[in-house]
Amino acid sequence: MQRDHGGNADVARALYGGDDWIDLSTGINRRPWPLPPLPDAVWRDLPTAQAEAGAIAAAADWVGCRPGRVHPVAGASAAIQLLPRLWTPGQAAVLTPSYNEHAASLAAAGWQVRPAADPDEMAGADLAVVVNPNNPDGREWPPEVLAQLASRVGRLIVDESFADPRPDLSLAPALPANAVVLRSFGKFWGLAGLRLGFVIGAPDLLAKLREAAGPWSVNGPALAIAAAAMADRAWADDAVTYHSEASLRLDMLARGAGWTLAGGTHLFRLYQTPDARTAQDRLARSRIWTRRFPYSDRWLRLGIPGNRHEWDRLTAALPTCAA
What's this model's pTM, rounded to 2 decimal places? Predict the structure, then answer.
């Protein structure tokens, strides 16, 4: 199963040369939360139970659930790999198109995977997987729709990796007993290198996940940074405001290149282009890297530029993509 990803700017460098690349191939916030100095012990010592509890408390407060329902993992990707192995394989329905690691990880764990175009097609599955809001097209479903879906399937995984700016979409505050929510810390806070995520679920499932992940599966600096960052509501409010306005600005620039909006979230936009390969190539010649998809000749996804320099580069490059 093909498992292509964004974030592969090394490929761009190899193909086009140059070092000053703007990587818009991911949905990672390019205005990251500012890192504070950390005590030496955070780097020197193994992470403590107190450090983990602090990150869990901050995450629980952020998503609106009890701390006993939250467990940190080494990125949402770690949970995507581990969860399918905690249950007996059966029939899995994955909302498609979507983040391709879900289907690939399920298949690798022995599940029979079928695509589904919307939640209604998932009824009867032993396991259903929904990304909300969806990557790459930004489709979204209110919590009540997903709660109803949970009642029609054996288990439900909801990947909310792009939901931090949209608390109204989260299933975490009223989580059905058979549902699991995944959160990615690195995307909204712009610190993907920490490799940190959170799983929200029933305590018995979290106990199995903890055992499967092993001790000290999340490093101390990640826990300390997450506890501070998730408590910084002023920064989060500013980040949501910036991306709300910036996404509209990007849409306007894309229309000038003859593209139409195919969807998106606060952190990325998806456009219908005349030819995605040509559009990606023309932007790459200005050292701006974007994301194409193997199942569409026309879709191109762009993250949100983070500063004036990046906006200026993109503004100058986009007219070269006009048909």
Answer: 0.96
